[in-house]
Predict the structure.
Amino acid sequence: MSEAIARELMAQRFRSFLPVVVDLETGGFNAERDAILEIAAVTLTMDPEGNLIPDATYAFHVKPFTGANVEQSALDFTGIRLDDPLRQQVALTEAEALGEIFRPVRKAIKAHGCTRAVLVGHNAAFDHGFLNAAVARCGIKRNPFHPFSSFDTASLAGLIYGQTVLARSCRAAGIEFDNSSAHSARYDTERTAELFCAMVNRYKDLGGWALAQHEQGIEEQP
């Protein structure tokens, strides 16, 4: 299968949406009030055999927005230290971080012949809610992500593996998971990307995608 055909299949596979895996570490559970502390995204692509694979990772520390709430319990859970000198040197504002994420996502959408990104997340509603709240706060007009559609790997893993916790879902899929590295946006996003690809590719290998292609009248390419 040529690279051009792989790109065509990507555009067909998710109704012209490009799945992009996103994870945020936050200062609490309230998207309107609590700070985003880390954000990461992994773009996906297809190999010449039509398998979904991770492409590139983008990850940033984020400065709490003015007036944001940060719960100590959230810092204890994630291990994030707001006073870490290195973090203070590299952390971006919300607007800067979103710009650094959205720029390559838009390029990936165009490169794959898609029209929009769709967020993939483990308990996706949480990340999607925080992302949309940050977009609104920053007044961003061109959000590349669909405003409400998403793929939730917790639900998919519950269906396929009988597991909903990220670490257990990954291990059920044969993906190594280091608990000591968990709860950083970069690490969790990369493992979630591997998990999502493993589930999509397993469905393809079992013949489900070929059946869907046939029912939709999409001819399989040689």
Notes: The two ends are 6 Å apart (CA to CA). The beta strands are 17-26, 36-46, 52-61, 116-121, 145-152. Residues 185-205 form the longest helix (21 residues).
